[in-house]
Amino acid sequence: MFDTLLIANRGEIACRVAATARRMGIRTVAVYSDADANARHVAACDQAVYIGGSEPRASYLRADAILQAAIDTGAGAIHPGYGFLSENEAFAEAAEKAGISFVGPPASAIAAMGSKSAAKSLMEKAGVPLVPGYHGDNQDPQFLKTQADGIGYPVLIKASAGGGGKGMRVVESSGAFLDALASCQREAASSFGDDRVLIERYLQKPRHIEIQVFADTHGNCVYLFERDCSVQRRHQKVIEEAPAPGMTEERRRAMGEAAVAAARAVGYVGAGTVEFISEPDGRFYFMEMNTRLQVEHPVTEMITGHDLVEWQLRVAAGQPLPARQEDLRINGHAIEARIYAENPEKGFLPSIGTLAYLGLPPHTAFTNGDIRVDGGVRTGDTITPFYDPMIAKLIVHGADRDQARARMLQALAQTQAVGVQTNVAFLSRLMSDTAFAAADLDTGLIERQRATLLPEPQAATAATLALASAAVLVRQGLAQPGLTSPGKGPADPWDARDGWRLGNQYQRHLQWVDNGETRRVTVARQGGAWTLDSGAGAQPFLWRSHASANPNLAYGLRITLAGHENAGTVVLHGDRAHVFGEGGVHVLELYDPLTHAQDTQGEHGGGLTAPMPGKIISILVKAGDTVEKGQPLLVMEAMKMEHTISAPADGKVEEVFYGVGDQVTEGAELVSIGA
């Protein structure tokens, strides 16, 4: 076994690999960019090497700098994680030539499976069923359009070297094909340096099921069962679970054996995932093979009890697999939810900013337990526009699927983030969704259940307003009523902080802005009795607070309002109260007339604004153009994903405020449109 491991990645997966390496007594080396100088993965390793600028191309995609860092630090092996250079055959080959073990398959296997089109041709020769499509080398747009017309719509355009949902477009009609192809190719070139695509028939109500395979250098190859990754948005996985609901032993064996055959066909070594798409009748088709560890590998670890990163390191050191096929068993059910900094209500756009507060349920980290959290950021870290906006992976285990789902709901209710938008409330609704609960799964579930998963914002309840108001009182040092036992009060009455005023009366008026509406709350004391009025009349009110992880920011509260008890955590950040309770979060803004009196319009008023920070990569209109509602105006890129900005109504372009290549901030005015 090598004694030093360089981890050629960042964030959660770098921390994950470091945790297992530390347990095995292996020294670890991190690499980092400008944006990651103070990142969690740097602190998790024994040594760290700076490799360049914040953009991935200037750092984490610099094979030469990473290889030199490994040589300089005496690393005997490089673990590439996932993404970045993890499936780059040239990098794997360079490492081996330098005498450094690459923790992954040989370069030849990466090359064979790295191109989706080449992999499909290989599987076709091996007799593995494929979805009807075109996987050839001719990339002429008109030729590809002819192929798509022949396959029949809808079709799916996929980047040949792609992954992670990037470089993928569903096209519903022949007329929309060429524009979608151009966008897909731009995104593929930006993300992978390769704009080649393949085209497939887009299956209706498909499930995404993948098989975890593992092979060593001694000729052994096993499958560690399956994962269901059907619940996706924007072609990216949101929920993964193992085993797949409804999977029969016969189909599991058939898919597992097909996956092992695929791995053997390319001389595979290490961890890999063979992905299949499955139709409702059980027929399955090969999609692709990911020649690396998957983001969702913890659910497999949960049901098998094996540490897959440890397996990777042992295989890379030349050791045989720790288990044979007959030794592997499925124990219970595991579900993983990806906690992202994104706004589900705005098309899941990334959310950039500083993570001012992060609260998590009691958990194990990077190792199996009832509730496990694999995370790469901490309170105070910044979610930047340069990398994937995942905050953490929340993984739960149960005796069966129902228990795992209930445990996930409980864990999500205790997951609290402030400073960026997150998908936590959305994930809670997803776990409670009737279709998900019944395991009626397919890749279109989120869109199909959109009305219940992405409901219109609701007004804050009286209890929510009371929790937010109680937090303000506690922050100001007001004592909690009804909690001081006889003889336990302050010795000096002048030390009491119970709202006493001359005449034994106290009154506090608060104005909360709730989804643009002003909600007035009055907290009052008459004698020893407290009341709260949020619009329905004064009601008896008590509150009590308890210790939290960050007592200067977060307040754990239990209130009694009109005889009904409610509990929650309120994070006061700036002029906003983030009220966590009732299965979600409600954000209220404390209205300050002085502050709002100074509100001014931006430099440009009344036009289209950027929904997130990013770069302008294409402008499709100019001043003076007449546009129709829904017409694309410009294209932005953020986190290697393209986002098209369209006209909200018919009108005339008055001004375009930026040019191609310009970086813009969230809320920046992009285009002004007049009637």
Structure commentary:
It is a single chain. With 675 residues, the chain is α+β, with helices and mostly antiparallel strands. The chain is built from 18 helices and 42 strands. It has an eight-stranded antiparallel barrel. A five-stranded parallel beta sheet has the order 3-2-1-4-5. The chain starts with a strand and ends with a strand. 45% of the residues are buried. About 4% of the residues have low confidence.
Span between termini? 70 Å
Number of helices: 18
Q: Roughly what is the average pLDDT, rounded to an integer?
A: 90
Major beta sheet summary = 8 strands, antiparallel, barrel
Q: What percent of residues are in strands? A: 25-35%
Which regions have little confidence, pLDDT < 50, spanning 5+ residues?
483-496, 594-606
* Count of β-strands: 42
Layout: helices, strands, pairs:
Elements: E1 4-7, H1 11-23, E2 27-33, H2 40-44, E3 47-52, H3 63-72, E4 77-79, H4 89-97, E5 101-102, H5 107-114, H6 116-125, E6 133-134, H7 141-151, E7 155-159, E8 168-171, H8 177-192, E9 197-201, E10 207-215, E11 221-228, E12 232-233, E13 236-237, E14 239-242, H9 249-265, E15 270-278, E16 284-290, H10 297-304, H11 308-316, E17 333-340, E18 342-343, E19 349-350, E20 353-354, E21 357-359, E22 364-365, E23 371-375, E24 382-383, E25 390-398, H12 401-413, E26 416-418, H13 424-432, H14 434-437, H15 445-448, H16 450-453, H17 462-475, E27 505-514, E28 517-526, E29 529-533, E30 539-546, E31 554-561, E32 564-573, E33 576-581, E34 584-590, H18 593-597, E35 608-609, E36 614-619, E37 626-627, E38 632-638, E39 641-646, E40 651-656, E41 663-664, E42 669-674
Parallel strand pairs: 1-2, 1-4, 2-3, 4-5, 22-23
Antiparallel strand pairs: 6-9, 7-8, 7-9, 10-11, 10-15, 12-13, 14-17, 15-16, 17-25, 18-19, 20-24, 21-26, 23-25, 27-28, 27-34, 28-29, 29-30, 30-31, 31-32, 32-33, 33-34, 35-42, 36-38, 36-41, 37-40, 38-39, 40-42
Helix pairs in contact: 4-5, 12-13
